[in-house]
Amino acid sequence: MGKEKVAIIGSGNWGSAIAKLAGNNVKKHNDVFDDSKVPIWVFEEEYEGRKLTEIINTDHENKKYLPDVKLPENVVAIPDLLETVKDATALVFVMPHQFLGKCLDQLEGKVNKDAKAITLIKGVGVDGADIHVFADVIQDRLGVSCSALSGANIANEVATDRFSETTIGYRTEEEGKMWQKLFQTANFKVQLIDDVAGVSLCGALKNIVAVAAGFIDGLEYGNNSKAAIMRIGLLEMKHFCQEFFKDVKEESFLQESAGVADVITSCLGGRNTRVAKAFVTGNKSFDELEKEMLNGQKLQGIHTAKDVHVFLKARDRLGAYPLFDKVYHISWEGLPVAKLTEGL
Amino acid sequence: MGKEKVAIIGSGNWGSAIAKLAGNNVKKHNDVFDDSKVPIWVFEEEYEGRKLTEIINTDHENKKYLPDVKLPENVVAIPDLLETVKDATALVFVMPHQFLGKCLDQLEGKVNKDAKAITLIKGVGVDGADIHVFADVIQDRLGVSCSALSGANIANEVATDRFSETTIGYRTEEEGKMWQKLFQTANFKVQLIDDVAGVSLCGALKNIVAVAAGFIDGLEYGNNSKAAIMRIGLLEMKHFCQEFFKDVKEESFLQESAGVADVITSCLGGRNTRVAKAFVTGNKSFDELEKEMLNGQKLQGIHTAKDVHVFLKARDRLGAYPLFDKVYHISWEGLPVAKLTEGL
User: Fold this and answer.
1) For the CA atoms of A68, A72, A74, A76, what is the dihedral angle to 10 degrees?
2) Domain B6-197's class?
C-alpha cells in the first residue's frame, strides 16, 4: 500500500492549528505518510494587502487566523479546493459547518474512492424529524469512510503546545490509528473510541449546556449551581443521543475529552457561556450580542437549542429534556432566566 | 414505628447549613419526623463576648460560621454531645474529620441501637495498607447503619437556597429515602445511590484533583489543559476506588453530584485549587500558604495525596495512578510543577 497523502480542507483558527500538528507528524511518521507536502485549502482573501495563501506559503504563518504560530514548511496553502484534494487519501474536514454543503457539491465524485476522511466540524444537522451528524453526510456524499474528532480543544492552546486531549470516533480501528498518528503529539493526547456519532454529537450539544452555564454565571448563583447545571446537561446529552442514535457509547459522554472535558472547557470560558452571561446581565437581545461580541457570527448554543427543539417537537418528545428545553425557551421565547433551574 | 428524632453532630458552616434544611423539613414531613426539636451539637466557644449556643438559641443564627442565615426555631444548640443524641434515631455527622475519633469515643455504647446515621464528613482514613471510609468507621464503632452524603455543596450557596444537588449513598433504600426527606428541598436536589463507599471516596479524592487543577491555573496553561486534568483525575478516582473497594458504582463518579459535579465545583474555585495556584505563582511553601490563606488549617488535597501515596506504596501499586502521584511529588518532594502533565 502506498503512503497516505493528507489534505486539510479549511484554514481557520482550528484548521491552521491542526495543520501544524499534521505537518510535523507526517515527517515523524514518514513510513505511513507522504511527508513532502500537506496541502491546506484556503478560502482566498486579502489580509494586510496580501493574499492569505501567499502569506502562509511565504511566511509559514496564518497571520489572520492563527497569528504568531509557525507552520511547518510542508504545509502548503492552495486556493483551489479540487487541486487541494487531488491524489489525497486522507481528507481532513475542518471548516464552519455552514460551508460544508457547498464544499461537498464541488467534491462529489472528485475524490479518491479509497480515501478516508475525518471531520473536525462542530455541529449537527436537523431537518424536521431528521437528525444527522456531518461525518455521515460526508460519508454518504463522497462515498468514503468518515471518522470524527472532537474534544476540549481551544485552537490556540493546542497550537502553542499546551497540554490537552481529544477524542477520535473511528469507523475502523485501523483508520482510528492512522488518524491518531496524524494528530497526536506529546502534549496533545488522542484517545480512540468506536463511536463516530457520539463524538460528533458531543461537539454540538455541549454548546447548549454552555449557554445554560452562562445563564447561571449571569444570575450569580455560584459554582455549586454551575456544576449542577453542567452535570445535568451532560446527562441530557447522553440520554438524547442514546434515544436517537443507535450504538452511541456512554463513555464518549462521561469519560472522553469529547464529552465531559469539552463541556467543562466550554462552560469555563467559551463564547457560548460568555455571551449567555451578557444576555442576563446586559439586558440586550442575542441578536445584538452576536453583533457586538461575535462580529456578527451566530451563537451556536442557542441555534442548536432551537434545532433540538424543532426536532423534539417533530418526534413528539417535547419535555423529555428539561434543560435543553429551558435554554430554548429562555433564548427564543422570553421565558425569564430565573426559571432555568425550576423542575430540573 | 415512632417518628424519627434527628440529631445533628457538628455546627460549622456545613453543619449549620444542613441544620437549616433539616429543621424545615422535619416540619414539612412531620408524619415521618418529630418536628418539635432538632438538636445540634455545638462545640462551645465564645463569639463576640457571648456563648455560641446562646447566640444560636436566641438569635437563631450561627453568627460565627454561617452569618446572615436564619435557622428554624426548632434547631436547638446543645453544648453536650450525649445530651444532643439522647433518644435520637437519625444521627447526622457533620464535623471536620479530625474530631470524629474523639466524638465516637464519647458516643460508643451510648446511642440508640436501632438508630440510623449518615455522615457528611469529607475525607478518607489511611493507615499503611489499610484504607477506610468514615461511614464504615461510624457503623463499626456505634453498631448503627451509616450512609454517606457528598456533593458539589458549597455551604453558603445551599444555605441561601441557590440551586444545587447532592448524592446520598445509602445502606438500604428505605434509609436512603428517609435521609432524602430530611434534606431535599425545591432547590437542593438529593439523588440516591446504593454506594456508600463510592460517594464517600469522591469527597476525599476530588481534593487531589483540585490541587492539580490549581497547578494548571498557576502555570497558566488555560481551560483546555484544566479540563483535561479534571477528566484524567476523575477517571483516576474511579479506577482507584474500583481497585480497592468492592462494589463501588461507576455512576457515583461519572454521573452523580458527588463525583463529576463536585470535581468541577472544587476545581472552579475551591480552596485546594486556590492555594495550589498560589503555590505555583507565589514561590511559597504549602506550610506558609496554609498559615496565610487557611488560617493554619490543613490543605486537604495535599494531605490526601500523601495518604494515597503511602497507601499505594504499602500495596505495591506506586505508578498506577500517575496524576495522584504527580500531585504528591510536586507537593511533598520538590518535583517541578511543569512536570505535572508529563506522561499522563
Assistant:
1) -10
2) alpha beta
